[in-house]
Design brief:
Layout lengths: L17 H5 L13 H8 L15 H6 L12 H19 L3 H4 L15 H12 L8 H28 L15 H45 L6 H14 L5 H20 L5 H24 L6 H16 L6 H47 L10 H20 L5 H50 L5 H17 L5 H52 L9 H12 L9 H20 L6 H17 L4 H34 L5 H29 L1
Helix pairs in contact: 4-12, 6-7, 6-8, 7-15, 8-9, 8-10, 11-12, 11-13, 12-13, 13-14, 13-15, 14-15, 15-16, 15-17, 16-17, 17-19, 18-19, 19-20, 20-22, 21-22
Length: 684
C-alpha cells in the first residue's frame, strides 16, 4: 500500500479522457492528515459535496467502506493513457456528428421507386417522412423526392400536351398534381423546417455547452492549483461528472477544450498518488463492464435492421470510452474482441451495399443501352400527325423500360438522367412546336370557314336565286379546299355551313313547289276561262255576231294569265293553242273582216304571246327566222314558176298552164307580202 504522501508514479502518461480520469478522482489523500486550514475550508463546502473521511489500509477495505466511497473506481497514469486512446477514437467519431447520417443505410423494402405511379410515390415518401428515423434517412428521402419531382414535371408536360392537342388554350391549362401531392409538399416543408429548427437549437446548445465547459475548466484549474484537501476527490469527481453530462461543443472548439481539460486532469493526477489495491479493483470492474459491452456487440449480428445495429454499436462505443482501463495484459485482447464484434456489423453493411452496387451497375448497363435508343428521338422531325403519334408511343414504351430498369450508381445517375431527359424533352419540344404551328393553321382555317358560313347565310337573303345559287356552289367548292380546323370546332362549324346551304336549296325547292301549286291553280282557272270563251264563241250567230272590241276584250282577259303562271310548258302551250283556235273561230263570226285582216290579228296575238314568254327573245328570233325561211322558199318557188312560165310562153296551146302558173306566182307574192308584214310586227 502506498501512502498519501508518497511520490507520484514517474511513468509517462498519455492524455487521459475525462471519463477515464474521473475514475481516479476518489482515492486521493483520504488518509492524509487534515490541517486546521483544511478543516476550515471543508466547513465552507455545501453538504452535498462533503464526504466522510475514511482510512483505507488495504484493497479489501474499500469493499466494506460506506457509500459512496466503495463505488468509486481508481486508476493510475498508465491506465489513464489506455483509456485515453479508446476515448480519443470514440470521441473523434462522436465529434463528427454529421457522419452519423452518412452511416445510415436505407433498408426499407420497396420496389424500384421509378416503377411506382405518382400517387404511390407520394404515399411512399409520406411514409418515409413520418418514420421516427426520418432525419437519419434524409438522403434517401431527398434522392427519391428528386426523382418524384422529375416524374411530376414529365406528367405535367404530358398533361399540357394532351390539353392542347384536345383543343385547349395553353394559358388555360392548370395542373393540380397527383393524389397526395399537396400533403407530401406540406410534409416535406415541415420536415425541412424541423431540421432547420433542430440545427439552430443544436448550435445554440453547443454554444451553451462550450460556455459551461469553459467554466468547468476554470474550476478545475483552481482545484489543480490549490492545496489538497480531504474533499478534493469529491470535488474532482463532481467536476468530471458535470463535464461528462455536458453535451458536445462547436466542432472548431472541441479539440482545444478537450486538450485543456485533459492537461489539467493529467497535472492533477500526476501530483497525487494512487492506491495500487484500488487500481486493481478498478481494472477488474472495468473488465467486467467491457465484457458486457462485447456480449452486447456480438449480439448485434442477429439484429435484423442494419441501421438499428449501427446505431446501437455507436452507443456501445460511447459507453466503452467512459469505462476505465483494464490490466495491460488483457487490454489488447479485449479491445480486439470488441473490434471484431464491431467489424461484423460493418461487414453486414458492406455486404448490403455491395449487393446493391452490383444491381445498380447492371441497371446502369441496361439504361445506357436504352439511352442509345432514346437519343435519336431528340432530332426527330416530320410533317405527319400519325408519325408523331407513332413515335410518341414508341418513346413512351422506351421510357417505361427506363423506369423499370431500377436505380444506378449515384455518381452516374445525374449525368445519365440529364441525357435521358434532354432527349425526352427535346422530342416533346419539337412535337409541341409542330402541333402549335398545326393549331395556328387550324385556327386560320377556322376563321376562313366561319367567313364562308357568313357568306352562305347572307346568300339566304339574296332575292336573286340564280345569283345566290352561284355563290353557294362557289362557297362549297372553297370549303373543300380548306384544311382541318380544331376538333372541338369541327362539327359545329360544319353543321352551321351545311345548315345554311341546305336552307338555301330548300328555299328553292319550296319556291318551286309554290310555283307548281300556283301553276296548277292558274291552269285550272285557264281551263275554266277557256270553257267560258268556248261558250261565248258557240253562242255567236248571224244575229249575234262577234266584234273587234269583243275580240280585244277576250285577248286582254286571256293575257291576264301570262304573268301568273309558270306551269308545265306543254300544258301552257296547249291552253294557248286552244285560245288561238277559239279566237280564230271568233274572228270568223266578225262581219266585214277580210282574210288578211283576220290573219294579221291572229299573228299579232301569237307575237304578243311570244313576247310575254320567259324566253321571249329566243322565241321571237326563232319565229323571225322561220318567216325568213318561208319567204325565201316562196321567192324560190316564184323564180321557178317564172322560169316555167317563160317556157310555156313559147308553146302553143299553153294558155291554161300559163294562167295557172301566173296565179300561183301572184298567190306566192301575196303570201310574201303577208309574211313581210308579219316580220314588221315582230320587229315592232
Amino acid at each position: 500500500m502506498q501512502s498519501a504522501d508518497a511520490a507520484p508514479e514517474t511513468t509517462s502518461a498519455a492524455p487521459a479522457s475525462p471519463e477515464a480520469t474521473a475514475a481516479e478522482a476518489t482515492t486521493l489523500t483520504d488518509t492524509a492528515p487534515v490541517t486546521s486550514e483544511a478543516d476550515a475550508a471543508d466547513s465552507t463546502q455545501p453538504e452535498a459535496v462533503r464526504e466522510p473521511v475514511v482510512a483505507l489500509q488495504t484493497a479489501a477495505d474499500i469493499e466494506t467502506a460506506d457509500a459512496p466511497v466503495a463505488a468509486l473506481p481508481t486508476s493510475n497514469n498508465d491506465s489513464a493513457a489506455e483509456a485515453a486512446q479508446a476515448a480519443e477514437a470514440a470521441d473523434t467519431a462522436h465529434s463528427a456528428g454529421t457522419e452519423e447520417e452518412e452511416e445510415y443505410v436505407p433498408e426499407i423494402p420497396v420496389p424500384d421507386f421509378t416503377t411506382l405511379d405518382l400517387p404511390a410515390q407520394a404515399a411512399h415518401l409520406l411514409t418515409l417522412l413520418r418514420r421516427p428515423d426520418a432525419r437519419q434517412n434524409r438522403k434517401q428521402i431527398f434522392d427519391l423526392y428528386r426523382q418524384y419531382e422529375t416524374t411530376v414535371n414529365a406528367d405535367r408536360t404530358a398533361a399540357r400536351q394532351r390539353f392542347t392537342e384536345g383543343g385547349g388554350e395553353a394559358d388555360d391549362f392548370a395542373y393540380h398534381g397527383p393524389e397526395g401531392h399537396a400533403e407530401l409538399s406540406s410534409a416535406l416543408q415541415e420536415f425541412r423546417d424541423s431540421r432547420a429548427k433542430d440545427a439552430r437549437a443544436e448550435d445554440e446548445q453547443r454554444a451553451k455547452n462550450l460556455a459551461h465547459k469553459q467554466y468547468l475548466l476554470t474550476q478545475l484549474r483552481q482545484l489543480v492549483e490549490s492545496a489538497e484537501t480531504k474533499d478534493s476527490s469529491v470535488r474532482i469527481k463532481a467536476l468530471q461528472n458535470d463535464w461528462k453530462a455536458t453535451g458536445a461543443v462547436p466542432q472548431k472548439d472541441a479539440q482545444e477544450i478537450w486538450n485543456s481539460y485533459h492537461a489539467l486532469l493529467d497535472i492533477y493526477y500526476n501530483n497525487r498518488g494512487l492506491f495500487f489495491e484500488m487500481k486493481e479493483l478498478d481494472r477488474r470492474r472495468n473488465l467486467e463492464a467491457k465484457e458486457a459491452l462485447i456480449q452486447r456487440a456480438e449480439a448485434l449480428a442477429n439484429q435484423p435492421s442494419i441501421n438499428k445495429a449501427l446505431q446501437e454499436l455507436r452507443q456501445l462505443h460511447e459507453e466503452w470510452k467512459h469505462i476505465g482501463p483494464v490490466a495491460n495484459e488483457q487490454r489488447d485482447a479485449i479491445w480486439n474482441r470488441f473490434l471484431q464484434a464491431s467489424e461484423k456489423v460493418h461487414d453486414r453493411k458492406k455486404e448490403f451495399l455491395n449487393v446493391r452496387s452490383t444491381q445498380e451497375n447492371a441497371n446502369l448497363t441496361r439504361k445506357t443501352a436504352l439511352l442509345e435508343q432514346i437519343k435519336p428521338f431528340a432530332e426527330f422531325q416530320t410533317e405527319r400527325v400519325n408519325e408523331w403519334r407513332a413515335k410518341t408511343d414508341e418513346l413512351q414504351k422506351l421510357k417505361e423500360e427506363w423506369d423499370t430498369a431500377g436505380l444506378v450508381p449515384r455518381d452516374k445517375a445525374e449525368q445519365l438522367n440529364k441525357q435521358f431527359w434532354s432527349a425526352y424533352k427535346g422530342f416533346f419540344q419539337r412535337k409541341n412546336q409542330f402541333f402549335k404551328s398545326l393549331d395556328e393553321e387550324k385556327n386560320a382555317n377556322l376563321q376562313r370557314k366561319l367567313d364562308l358560313c357568313n357568306q352562305a347565310e347572307a346568300a339566304l337573303q339574296n332575292p336573286n336565286w340564280e345569283e345566290g345559287r352561284e355563290i353557294v356552289i362557289r362557297l362549297q367548292k372553297e370549303w373543300k379546299l380548306i384544311g382541318r380546323v380544331p376538333e372541338k370546332q369541327s362539327d359545329k362549324v360544319w353543321n352551321r355551313f351545311r345548315t345554311a346551304c341546305d336552307a338555301f336549296f330548300e328555299r328553292k325547292n319550296e319556291e318551286a313547289k309554290q310555283r307548281v301549286q300556283q301553276a296548277q291553280q292558274v291552269s285550272q282557272e285557264q281551263a275554266t276561262h277557256l270553257d267560258r270563251v268556248a261558250d261565248a264563241v258557240t253562242a255567236l250567230s248571224v244575229d249575234a255576231p262577234g266584234t273587234l272590241e269583243g275580240f280585244r276584250q277576250h285577248v286582254e282577259e286571256w293575257r291576264a294569265f301570262d304573268g301568273a303562271t309558270n306551269g308545265p310548258r306543254g300544258s301552257a302551250e296547249r291552253a294557248e293553242e286552244k285560245f288561238q283556235s277559239l279566237m280564230g273561230k271568233y274572228l270568223d263570226h266578225v262581219p266585214g273582216l277580210s282574210y288578211a285582216e283576220r290573219a294579221d290579228l291572229l299573228f299579232q296575238l301569237q307575237v304578243e304571246r311570244l313576247k310575254s314568254s320567259p324566253d321571249s327573245q329566243q322565241a321571237l328570233y326563232r319565229k323571225e327566222q322561220g318567216l325568213r325561211r318561208e319567204i325565201n322558199e316562196l321567192e324560190n318557188d316564184i323564180a321557178t314558176l317564172q322560169t316555167n312560165l317563160e317556157f310555156f310562153a313559147r308553146s302553143k296551146n299553153a294558155n291554161q298552164l300559163r294562167e295557172e302558173y301566173q296565179g300561183r306566182i301572184d298567190e306566192a307574192k301575196g303570201r310574201i307580202d303577208g309574211l313581210k308584214k308579219q316580220l314588221k310586227i315582230i320587229r315592232a
